[in-house]
Amino acid sequence: MGNRRRELTEGKMRAFCALFWMLSVDSFGILKGVFGNDSNKHLELGKLYMAQGQLQDALTHFHAALEIDSNNYLTLFRRATVFLALGRSKSALDDLNKVIELKPDFNSARIQKGIILVKLGRLEEAEIELKKVLQRDKSNEEAEKWYSQLGILQRQYQQARILHSDKEWVTAADLLTKIIDSCPWDTNLREMRIDCHLAMGETAKAITDLRATTKLISDNTESYLKLSKLHYLMGEGNESLNEVRECLKLDPEHKECFPHYKKVKKVVKVVNDLNSAASDERFTDCISLANKLLKVEPSNQNFYFQAEEKLCHCSLKEGDVKEAISHCTKALSFRSEPRILCDRAEAFILEGSLDEAQSDYSKALEIDENFQRAKDGIQRVQKLQKQAKKRDYYKILNVRRSATKKEILKAYRKAAQKWHPDNFQGESPEKKAAEKKFIDIAAAKEVLTDPEKRKKFDAGEDPLDPESQQGQGFNPFQQHHGFHRGHGGGPFSFKFHFN
Ligand SMILES: *[C@@H]1O[C@H](CO)[C@@H](O)[C@H](O)[C@H]1NC(C)=O
Question: Is the overall model pTM greater than 0.70, yes or no?
Fold first, then answer.
């Protein structure tokens, strides 16, 4: 905005400087040209703005000049050039037709008209125009250059129509792309290519062509509606809403756009609320909004995916492992994305399914070899697998990895009661086994009820392992009661506190 304003001001400054330069150095004739005749004044200003690339300002002055002197073919020709530069081919064509009417031997106007007709895909008309130029001026290189392309283009155009009606989508799309290079303003070609891309499932490409057609045809409510529907199909709610609003700007009571707008608006609200809940880590809201999305839009696959993907992530964060795995799997069956694979892998870890977790992390890395979360995840799983071969404190107490402290203490009390060495008589092998088991149970309780130690253990370290913890080994007997593990049992008489 600011830049454009500055440009405009600079442009105007330069234009006025040029005028004053003419005033100061030039003859009376030009003075009269500038101030004596309003039409010429506007023409000169228009030319100056045009030279500066200030197309809108140039247009304003050419309009003004033509209001005073509507049959000035040179001014008309200049205005046509500006229209063309602004992409307004229809207005340019109107001006050029008037120019040719006023001055039939003005070759440049016919060549311009011919080029516009080629770009519009009106090849027969272009041929007539360019032929007229070449009849008058055989060696006109520019006319020859465009004229020589017409034969091939016409043949390709016909072939494309046939391929399109034969539903040879891929071949038709390739050929259409070649023709559109030469005829970029032809809406029929675009519409055919849209059909091809939709049939090929290339929705994004269809959208690009549709957007072009909204510019090629004015008041194109149909294209806006189609665009909105395509964005909706792709699960792009905001974009869909923007396009249907464009339709309603042109026709506020459009029969199809209005009901479509109502529906899109409702869904977009839920989607946007859902996204905010997830990014604000309001996981309960996230889960209920995702379920709401499934209810208000039960049939669109892309919104279904967005809902399932959020249910996967937010259930995981809520610690609901089973729900998380189920929703992640649904989302993944629709689209395999690294972050969803990593969410499911985390859920698998919490569930104790390390192989499945590893497999998901590997798949994530197949999709994106630099996905850091998956790289870290693989390392974590490897540590956990190594650890699983050693002591697994969760297994010892027979609790889930996501168990609460309360659940852990309960499991601990149960196991400790069952395996307390006092329950076993004499020096039997059973008593020995129970002693070992009892040590493990106490160690498990020590680690899993201490948030620091549990965190270390979850990260794949054994906080009681002297190897990984530099001599902070743990032995409840040794530490508190001078009992030496592995030395064969001495008298065993301490009271264990079930806290
Ligand atoms: C959609 O638009 C809303 C508000 O205009 C914005 O907050 C949100 O981030 C947008 N969503 C996407 C996916 O771009």
Answer: no
